[in-house]
Fold this protein.
Amino acid sequence: MLFGINIYGLVQGLGFRPFIYNLALKHFLKGYVSNNGEGVYIELNTTYKKLYKFMEQIQLKKPPLSKIEYFSITLKNDIKKFENFTIKESQESFSISTMIPSDIAMCKKCEIELNDKNNRRYQYPFITCTNCGPRYSIIKNLPYDRCNTSMDKFKMCDKCKKEYTNPKDRRYHAQPIGCFDCGVELSIYDKGKNKLEINSKNYIDDIVTHIESGKIVAIKGIGGYHLVCDATNTKTVDLLRERKYRPYKPFAVMVKNIVMAKTIVTLNDKEKELLSSHKRPIVLCQQTTKSNISDLIAPNINQLGVLLPYTPIHTLILNKLNNPIVATSANISGEPLCKTFDEIMNLSHIWDYCLDNNRDIINSCDDSIAFVENDKTFMLRIARGYSPNYLKLPKNTNKKILCLGANQKSTIGIVIKDKMILSPYIADLNSLETINRFKSQIDTFKKTYNFEPEIVVCDKHPSYESTKYAIELKKQNPNLELIQVQHHYAHILATMAINNISSKVLGVSFDGTGYGDDNNLWGGEFLICNNNSYKRVAHFNYFKLLGGTLAIKEPRRVALSFLFDIYGKDALNISNKTINSFSKEELKILYTLWEKNINSPLTSSCGRLFDVVASLLNIVQVSSYEGESGLLLESYYDSSITDYFQFDINNKIIDFKCIVIQILKEKNHFIAISKFFNTLVQIIYEMGEKYKLPIVLGGGVFQNRVLIRLLIEKIPNIILPKEFISNDSAIAYGQAIAVV
Ligand code: ZN
Ligand code: ZN
Ligand code: FE
């Protein structure tokens, strides 16, 4: 009998065909395997019984990184007799639904070879195989073949070619392979952009010496460049902060291994597993008190982002170092990650030496960031290892939909059939560079997937760059359908979809700011919604952002606005930390803004309430990075304090003014802050009791791990953005759900 088997899912570029080949040989089956448009196709002569066994083994033993979504088997009518089993070259043209695999950390087998003196790739900084190495970051076009990647310029030597063409070899069709004779090469540049001659080409030793002697080095990794220095050297870390204009925002630290990680953070099993997973995200962990890293790495917070090496270059460097290193994205604050030689050379005022290589990065990809709370993984940034992200949709559609997301933490996505392909994190669309990166991501999608949108979806905020771009697209192409989706509804839809929920829920969207249907800036919202509609049933009282966007950077402006709301002009005569942080002149001007409603948009943002608390308690008056208030408040939470402030929910309005009055009376920071957290939890809990609906969380505030921890404890069946994200990187996905 002749059978045809189609296997769909993440099955290309991950050693799936050689796996089938070797399995077929083991089962004495005759036929062939090939990649086709939508996955892998197998044809073979066998019996039902043997086929059943074969299929069972495929599912049991498939390559570790592959994912079978489903398969179909057909009994063929034509008569074909195969002599043996072969791997056939893919002939059919690719389909747009083919999945591109993510970049994967170096595997165990490659690491062993890297350290094996007798291996021909001993200490080769670009060692890779079918089970590891770059994928997404080097791909130019589908199908994923070497000629469509940035490896096309490297001509394989005979030895590599032999491995590449042998189905029994671990490197069979591993697109990025190479060796000292034929592969990617390192080089070192100084600040003057001069390529340095290094004795016996010992680039790794050279860069290690620079790190040890307190220099800042740029290192080209998989999806971009890092800035690296010794994490225990306060002088260098301080210099890096100064040169990068990044005074306080925490840096991530790369450690040699789990043993070294344990010297600076505490780790539970789940955190260890996540750190060592092939995705290798930065994991936020609790700092230990006796850590030897500089106090300037994560000032005033008790958490620390750590990650393990994920390329052979990082491994080779860390193997020679005894200290953890700072590994932060090479960019100017708020701008996209550097991926080209020219871009990193433009930052030569920050670094002293640059360890470069001649493999082009086609698609840039930042490090992903995650944390573990209650044994669950929460993502703070979805990029390397996780991107491109294939997200399921509740419905299949034939329409070609482009979703442009929000403005901060930008990601964009395209809808193909029953999936959304979500781009990695792009950054905030506040500068020309990020807007260009945003546009080029759209072009990459169009080119890679041969995609031309029929519908474009964006936010309702008129001044988001993504909205402006959508309107521009519509102008150029009147046939294009333009749909705008409310920001917080999109937040809730994203969490619902990731959890396979489409029925009625109570959505809680605690967020920074997003454009509301009444033209005010929402952000502390309770929405009753399903996949088709939403109704706002409660929100925090509106308050004024004195000076508009400036108030987002200055927590004291929001706190002052509350003081004006409560005490009117008398607030000017109060003496407290918020008031005292302004000059008399400033206070007068701000009072006028408040009184006359000049440049003072109304908002119900919960994110800003964290700012109010942080300013009243003099923890932050002017933020130096986004989310600073929330992060700093976490350090003051005391779990032995279980009570909360009295609050009022009247006529759909949750009054925060009465909470502010209680905070002003509380002199103990730990009590005030713990009660503030407990109050937010209690509000959500009571709303849940009132509506008796499943509670779904979405919005940037739910990246606060203390809040998440307390909510899981109080409401065990609360619905979270599990393994996905709750900040504005989720918006594009939510937009897709709203329109399919
Ligand atoms: Zn490998
Ligand atoms: Zn070679
Ligand atoms: Fe948001």
